Amino acid sequence: MRTRTTTAVTAVLLLAAVTACSSSSTDDKPRTASAKTTSTSTAPASAAAKTSPLEIGASHHWSDTDTDGTHISGTTTVMSYTQPIKLDNSAGLSDFPHPVWAILDVKLCADSSSSTVMSSQKPWALGFPDATRIQAPFISGAGVPKPEYPVESAAVKAGSCLRGKILFSMERGSRPNQIIYSPEGRDPVEWSVPKV
Fold first, then answer.
1. Which pLDDT band, with edges at 50, 70 and 90, does 110 fall under?
2. Where are the alpha helices (DSSP H) in the chain?
3. Residue 170 belongs to domain spanning
4. Is the distance from CB of 161 to CB of 111 less than 8 angstroms?
5. Burial class of residue 161, CB neighbours in 10 A (0-12, 13-18, 19+)
6. What would the mean pLDDT of 70-88 be, rounded to a whole number?
């Protein structure tokens, strides 16, 4: 028992000494940020948490630091949501036994001051009243309404935009109540899906 206590006290004292040494540095050298993607919000976190979902057609402006440390910023907009739609070739595209299909039309614009932004279907999802979600299924090709939003990452240069459609399927009788845009490292943004 005494050995454990002595070891624990020694570890705490060593940690305190290391912390004191690292925080009492008086050099004026700039600190470099890690290359990890971090989010910089234009509003305080508490305000972002209280924000109600956007209406379809409304744009969300965002700003971030890319993995290489460059500045990226732009706007993301849900242009429209259409459910149900008919597909020419729906066999085998859905995991649901009785699917209904929907199209999400989205647009991403990179600010003129931004470096190139990479965009894909990955951050997009539909949210349902029971708190479940359906992620973008990465469906492309024959039978998918055009123009398709890229399944793989596509480059959006500063001052330009990318717009396209994302195909979703769900079980007949269900309808989402929100559209969710949730890029890695940033708070999710939500748009309300109008009731029928």
1. very high
2. 2-23, 45-50
3. 54-192
4. no
5. middle
6. 93
Instruction: Identify the pLDDT of residue 138.
Output: 87
Domain membership flag for residue 13 = no
Q: Which residues of 17-54 are buried (b: 16+ CB within 10 A; e: fewer)?
A: eeeeeeeeeeeeeeeeeeeebeeeeeeeeeeeeeeebb
Q: Is residue 35 part of a domain?
A: no
Residues 3-13 have pLDDT tens digits of: 333 333 333 33
Instruction: Work out the average pLDDT over 156-169.
Output: 97
Measure the CA–CA gap between 41 and 112, rounded to whole angstroms.
18
Backbone dihedral region for residue 178 (phi beyond 0: left; psi -120 to 50: alpha; all else: beta): beta
- CA gap 102, 35 in Å, rounded: 37
183 assigned to some structural domain: yes
**38 in any annotated domain:** no
C-alpha–C-alpha distance, residues 73 and 108, integer Å: 10
- SS3 state at 4: helix
Question: What contacts 23, CB < 8 A, 6 or more positions away?
Answer: none
Split into its structural domains, the chain has a count of 1
CA atoms of 19 and 21, how far apart (whole Å)? 5
Q: Which amino acid is at 106?
A: V
Tell me the whole-structure pTM to 2 decimals.
Answer: 0.72
CATH of the domain at 167: 2.60.40.1240
